[in-house]
Amino acid sequence: MAALGGSPFCMQGNFIMSPRVILLSLLLVVLSHAAPAAEPPTPPAELKRLEPFVGTWKVEKFVSKQAEWTPVEVQSAGEIATTRWIMDGWFIEDRKAPGAPPGPDHLGIWHYEPAEKVYHYTMFQTPGGNRTDLAVRWNDKTAAFEGTASLPNGITMRTISRFPNKDSKEWQAKATDAAGKIYLDITCTEIRVTPAQSPK
């Protein structure tokens, strides 16, 4: 059969192909040779600095000294919390372990913000539904994580967390106003009861 002059179809044997089909075929060929998809982003290397926190920890001694928010000093021990990597190693979750002694509960989330070059620790607590957002930085001189959080009414909370060795942790939290009035003053020592685990 002769070619159909001026026809929008092309003849190939006994099969008629439209220009649209030819175009789609060429597009598929181009796409099949396109560069492979970019690798998914990986968690920032700075998150490795948080590895010492990972594991299950038991409170050896918790002291909340007498202050504006705690008129009577409070001491306790024995609470157990687990800190673990979540969401493909992008975040760390810190929460009271199931079956731990009854009492106040908490959920903390660690992450690193590359644009700010700072760690963030957001803690939720019950009873009361309280939330605290800490901006945390590693201090090479003191070998400690140092955090600050702005609270209502001009109060600032400052925290320090350090690891005397791989199986012990010490932390402090103090809330004061511009005049130096102390609203909260906590010290705590913890011991590791299960080994740390790297993110999957």
Structural class: mainly beta
The number of domains: 1
Strand content: over 45%
CATH class (first level) name: Mainly Beta
* Element-level helix/strand string: EEHEEEEEEEEEEE
The name of the CATH architecture is Beta Barrel
**How would a textbook summarize the main sheet?**
10 strands, antiparallel, barrel
Tell me, what's the shape?
elongated
Distance between the termini: 65 Å
Q: CATH homologous superfamily?
A: Calycin beta-barrel core domain
Using only C-alpha atoms, the radius of gyration works out to 29 Å
Please explain how this structure is put together.
- The chain is mostly beta strands and 200 residues long.
- The protein has one helix spanning 19-32, and strands at 10-12, 15-17, 55-64, 74-76, 80-86, 91-96, 105-113, 118-126, 130-139, 144-151, 155-165, 168-176, 182-194.
- It has a single domain (45-194), classed as Calycin beta-barrel core domain (Lipocalin, Beta Barrel).
- A hairpin with a 3-residue loop joins β8 (118-126) and β9.
Defining traits:
200 residues, Lipocalin, 10-stranded antiparallel barrel, two-stranded antiparallel ribbon, 1 helix, 7% helix, disordered N terminus
